[in-house]
Amino acid sequence: MRYELVIFDNDGVLVDSEPIANTILAGYLTELGHPTSYEESLRDYMGAAVHRVHDLVDERGGEKLPADFEDILQARTFAAFQQELVAVDGAEELLGKLVADGVDYCVASSGSHEKIRVGHRRTGLDQWFEEEWIFSSEDVGRGKPAPDLFLHAAERMGVAPERCVVIEDSPLGVEAARAAGMDVYGFTSMMPADRLTGVTGHFSDMAQLPELLA
User: What is the DSSP annotation of 47-94?
Assistant: First the structure.
């Protein structure tokens, strides 16, 4: 394998959380007087940290979100995760192959550390990640599309950015990886390939990824 470190996005790449989370987000924003469809939530917020929701609501001149917005959103999302969340098909097999091949990996997510851990425990992926292999936008000042999170993950894992490859499924994540000077492969399970521009390559099935990385 030509890369020393594989950096995974989490939501939509390792755990199949995007349909759940965006359904809840769209519904809650609509409930608060900011009409948002599921498709609009995917377009505007997929791959982003929650501060982007506040930023876009402010930019659009809507009433500010309540102080407990994030707490309520998280509680609703976690409750749904406990009922519905599953791992992305092939994710566990891919992680097993990386371990067998001696390839280092980590996760760098816009979600909070708690959200990552809740999802991993629910899906059984927690067995594949040590705590020091998990990075969140909470760890840096800016989330995606800024490169800070990916650069932070690479530094902590001791690998130069140009020796890293990022696995992403959102335009914001792809933009962040490119800004970090890393190769990036776009996972097209939810986002069409024409929305993931500038990537090193596209794939639609986790089973395809080892060959692309070789």
Answer: T--THHHHHHHHHTTPPPPPTTHHHHHHHHHHHHHHHH--BPTTHHHH
Which amino acid does the sequence have at 201? Answer: G
Q: Any idea what the CATH number is for the domain that residue 133 is in?
A: 3.40.50.1000
With 0-12 / 13-18 / 19 or more C-beta atoms within 10 angstroms meaning exposed / middle / buried, residue 34 is middle
63, 84, 105: which is the final residue of a domain?
Answer: 84
Is the domain of 60 the same as that of 108?
Answer: no
Q: How high is the pLDDT of residue 142?
A: 84
* Mean pLDDT value of segment 95-113: 95
Q: Cα(180)–Cα(146) distance, rounded to whole angstroms?
A: 8
Beta bridge partners of 45: none
8 A C-beta contact, residue 213 and residue 2: yes
CA distance 80 to 29: 17
Q: Are residue 124 and residue 189 in the same domain, yes or no?
A: yes
Tell whether the model's pLDDT for residue 87 goes beyond 90.
yes
More confident residue, 47 or 72: 72
How is residue 166 annotated by DSSP? E
pLDDT at 9: 98
**pTM score:** 0.91
Cα gap 84→172, rounded to integer Å? 25
